[in-house]
Amino acid sequence: MRALGWWLMLVGTLRLASVWFGFFDIWALRLAVFSSTQMTEIHGRTFGVWTLLTCTLCYLCAFNLDNKPLYIATFLSFIYALGHFLTEYFIYQTMVAANLTTVAIIAGTSLVWMLVEWDSHSIITPVSSNSKKSQ
């Protein structure tokens, strides 16, 4: 597995902590992420399910870096997550800068790394001699 795959596995595993907090420890999620607002248990579970989906994308992409649609979906999940947290911080003011910084470092690193390796995971299939003859 390439280094990007290992990074995505790490990110997916870190996201599992947020899933746990969302389902079983809403107050830890509030302190760790949304420290400037009230949260209900339904908010925590919704956040947990959304985060579980992004965690799943990270794991699937880590093992299938050559799958372009999956790669794009994972890449977009980082954009959506970063966009979500940026709006929570700048517009709704439900987060503090320290919590945003952690998210921005992980999402930013992932986005840059995935952009750098955008076309380096394609499977190259050799052209057979039969297909050359038919042309």
Automatic annotation (TrEMBL):
Coiled coil: none
InterPro entries according to UniProt: Erg28
Transmembrane segments: 6-27, 47-65, 71-91, 98-116
GO biological process: sterol biosynthetic process
Keywords for the protein's UniProt record, in alphabetical order: Endoplasmic reticulum, Lipid biosynthesis, Lipid metabolism, Membrane, Steroid biosynthesis, Steroid metabolism, Sterol biosynthesis, Sterol metabolism, Transmembrane, Transmembrane helix
Protein localization: Endoplasmic reticulum membrane
Molecular function terms, GO-annotated: protein-macromolecule adaptor activity
Gene Ontology cellular-component terms listed: endoplasmic reticulum; endoplasmic reticulum membrane
Family according to the record: Belongs to the ERG28 family.
Protein name according to UniProt: Ergosterol biosynthetic protein 28
Natural source organism: Zostera marina
